[in-house]
């Protein structure tokens, strides 16, 4: 799938569940306007559908349903320890969408949720208000594409555009928009503000086509990156997670070399690298969803509740990728 509109053609959501509280929200109406043929089902609360018992994540991934809801409680959360903060003291994340349209074999979301259905919280203005309250205390570094790929949904939500515009009027807010999509064209006409970072996760073609089902391949992502760079956007590239598979070194060397053949190194703000790591509890659930996964069959070590590769493999992979990257960019730009 190159992006949501081209590949799903907006028809996969045969059923859309809408909370009564969300019905009159403008974002709800805008989203529903893309799904003229879908069955609209009114519900009291999204949890009645999303968290119901005896769901099959793997089966639902073939035909996910859409749920439109209003979120209550906290909107902003402290950044996770397993995630890179890039030197930002006040690191947070927010999730306006639960679950992702892509089906990456290693994705932690299948260990978090029992449902593959997608929830979009339509009350985005409430999130903005909480961010503004936080900004009164100190600067904020905020990841907005944490539990989803927000840019992949841009055709139907417009949320990425709104976040960029919001950042444009709050200079002490820095946002990261992480994506595997090839959807830059949805935001290419927007002003590239200095406090907005477009962060692409890149994987070798051999890995993306096998283990990142539904996501655009390496070449498609690279084309979006080139367009973003030529338009003046801040660019972050993430080689994360690096997967320990047969011929991994050959794949990642080719991936990195081709990346820098296409993108001038001086146009890259920074680079993130990291090997596969996952909560022990999440991994246990993921193996139940995908018991024959090659990616998940590795004999992971457990440290502080997090599963990752054995030290010898971890060090070999990080050193290999780091040394390749350091040929192209200053070491200060590489975050591990």
**Helix tally?**
13
Q: Please estimate the helix content.
A: 25-40%
In angstroms, what separates the terminal alpha carbons?
A: 29 Å
The overall average pLDDT, rounded, is: 95
Poorly predicted sequence stretches spanning 5 or more consecutive residues: 4-11
Q: Major sheet, described briefly?
A: 8 strands, mixed
CATH C-level class: Alpha Beta
What does this 3D model show about the protein?
The structure is a single chain. The chain is of the alpha/beta class. It has a single domain, classed as Alpha-Beta Horseshoe (pyruvate-formate lyase- activating enzyme), CATH 3.80.30. The chain contains 13 helices and 18 strands. The strands form 4 sheets. Strands 4-5-9-10-11-13-14-18 form an 8-stranded mixed sheet. The protein has a 5-stranded mixed sheet with strand order 2-1-3-8-6. The longest helix is centred in the last third of the chain and has 15 residues, at 248-262. The two termini are 29 Å apart. 41% of the residues are buried. It is an enzyme of class 4 (lyase). Its EC number is 4.1.99.-. One of its GO terms (cellular component) is endospore-forming forespore.
């Amino acid at each position: 799938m190159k992006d949501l509109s081209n590949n799903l053609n907006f028809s996969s959501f045969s059923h859309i569940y809408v909370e009564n509280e969300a019905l009159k929200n403008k974002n709800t109406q805008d989203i529903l306007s893309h799904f003229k043929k879908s069955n609209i089902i009114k519900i009291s609360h999204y949890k009645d559908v999303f968290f119901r018992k005896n769901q099959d994540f793997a089966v639902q991934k073939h035909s996910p349903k859409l749920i439109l809801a209003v979120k209550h409680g906290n909107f902003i959360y402290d950044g996770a320890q397993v995630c890179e903060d890039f030197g930002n003291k006040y690191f947070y994340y927010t999730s306006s969408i639960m679950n992702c349209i892509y089906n990456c074999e290693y994705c932690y979301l299948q260990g978090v949720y029992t449902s593959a259905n997608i929830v979009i919280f339509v009350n985005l203005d409430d999130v903005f208000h909480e961010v503004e309250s936080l900004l009164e205390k100190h600067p904020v570094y905020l990841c907005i594409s944490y539990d989803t790929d927000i840019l992949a949904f841009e055709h139907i939500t417009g949320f990425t555009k709104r976040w960029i515009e919001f950042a444009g009027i709050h200079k002490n807010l820095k946002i990261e928009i992480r994506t595997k999509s090839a959807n830059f064209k949805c935001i290419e006409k927007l002003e590239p503000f200095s406090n907005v970072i477009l962060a692409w996760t890149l994987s070798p073609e051999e890995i993306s086509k096998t283990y990142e089902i539904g996501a655009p391949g390496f070449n498609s992502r690279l084309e979006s990156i080139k367009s973003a760079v030529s338009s003046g956007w801040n660019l972050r590239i993430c080689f994360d997670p690096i997967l320990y598979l047969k011929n991994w070194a050959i794949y990642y060397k080719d991936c990195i070399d081709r990346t820098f053949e296409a993108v001038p190194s001086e146009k890259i703000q920074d680079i993130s690298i990291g090997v596969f790591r996952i909560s022990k509890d999440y991994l246990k659930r993921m193996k139940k969803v995908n018991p024959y996964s090659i990616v998940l069959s590795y004999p992971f070590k457990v440290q502080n509740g997090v599963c990752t590769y054995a030290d010898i493999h971890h060090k070999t992979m990080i050193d290999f990728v780091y040394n390749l990257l350091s040929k192209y960019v200053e070491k200060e730009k590489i975050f591990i």
